[in-house]
Amino acid sequence: MPDTWVLGIETSCDETSAAVVGDGRVIASSVISSQIAVHRRFGGVVPEVASRQHLDRITFVVDEALKEAGLGFSSISCLAVTVGPGLIGALLVGVAAAKAYSYALKIPLVPVHHLEAHLYANFLAHPELEPPFVCLVVSGGHTSLILLQDHLKYRLLGATRDDAAGEAFDKIARVLGLPYPGGPALEELAAGGDPCAIPFPRAWLEEGSTDFSFSGLKTAVMNYLNRLREEGTSPYLPDVAASFQAAIVDVLVEKTLLAAKKAGVGKVALAGGVASNSTLRRHFEKRAAEEGLDFYFPEKRLCTDNAAMVACAGYYHYLAGHRASLAQEAFAHYPLVPCE
Ligand code: KG4
Ligand code: ZN
């Protein structure tokens, strides 16, 4: 039986989620109320609508998380909440709720960074995993290579200079006429296509760079589609999707392996919504094995936004003695503080 139960709360984008995690590794409950159906008719997340949806659902998901875990508030040692980065109105709902629970029930509260939460999902999936390792956090808003030197000690090894990989998936999916959220829909379409059909560019950037850029690839796909339309030819969309996906996956995998080599670590991990892409997972697994690196990735439900990962990261903040005050704010932009 775990000693320390953490109740996590996540509302940074379009999932309202609460979860109870024991000793940072045991998921007792994970409740996710997705707003996908609400935002789909707008073709993407509408921030104001997201905030209102979070408000409607937040107390329900917290109650459900406790019920599913079979625990009362009196068993909770600590509350953990995502404070940024994300949609400010959405974050504020989670932060305000967490502060209210903390104040009313006298339970300490810790602030969690959304990217560190994604990274920490790997500890839930692999209880034996220990730092150091290099993690590619690849989501709708971020594409970052982070070295976790020790718990809560981060070094940023690379990041995107323009679009995040998930953003590129979503934008190209929209161009291909696919519904929101674009990533999973594009992956499905790509399954019936040839990844070598169209040689879309890979942005390797300067020799040895571990930064990313996806805007050139996005333009290349749009130019390709426009050229075919001007010629009066219909593109074979599964080939376009598969070739686009292959171009993104190649760059993500090779740059992560390069970053691990440069950092001198033998373990690589994957996190964030795009990490649920099966082609990315398979390619990563194969290339990591070829390079002699251990490869870790969370199960799909822990890749997209969820509060279990927040509770996991929160547990380490709790152990480190970090505490949020009632003046805790939410931050739309919030850099992950590197260690000295
Ligand atoms: O981590 P996440 O749930 O939210 C953010 O923090 O952004 O990631 C959402 C992103 C979206 O861009 C979505 O299209 C992408 O992850 N995504 C995928 C897949 N599933 C989700 N991208 C590619 N393939 C997938 N299977
Ligand atoms: Zn996320």
From TrEMBL:
Pfam families: TsaD. The keyword tRNA processing applies. Fe cation binds at H114, H118, D305. It comes from Thermacetogenium phaeum. HAMAP family: TsaD (MF_01445). One of its GO terms (molecular function) is tRNA N(6)-L-threonylcarbamoyladenine synthase activity. This is tRNA N6-adenosine threonylcarbamoyltransferase. Belongs to the KAE1 / TsaD family. InterPro entries: ATPase_NBD, Gcp-like_dom, KAE1/TsaD, Peptidase_M22_CS, TsaD. Its cofactor is Fe(2+). It catalyses: L-threonylcarbamoyladenylate + adenosine(37) in tRNA = N(6)-L-threonylcarbamoyladenosine(37) in tRNA + AMP + H(+). Required for the formation of a threonylcarbamoyl group on adenosine at position 37 (t(6)A37) in tRNAs that read codons beginning with adenine. Is involved in the transfer of the threonylcarbamoyl moiety of threonylcarbamoyl-AMP (TC-AMP) to the N6 group of A37, together with TsaE and TsaB. TsaD likely plays a direct catalytic role in this reaction. Binds 1 Fe(2+) ion per subunit. The gene is tsaD.
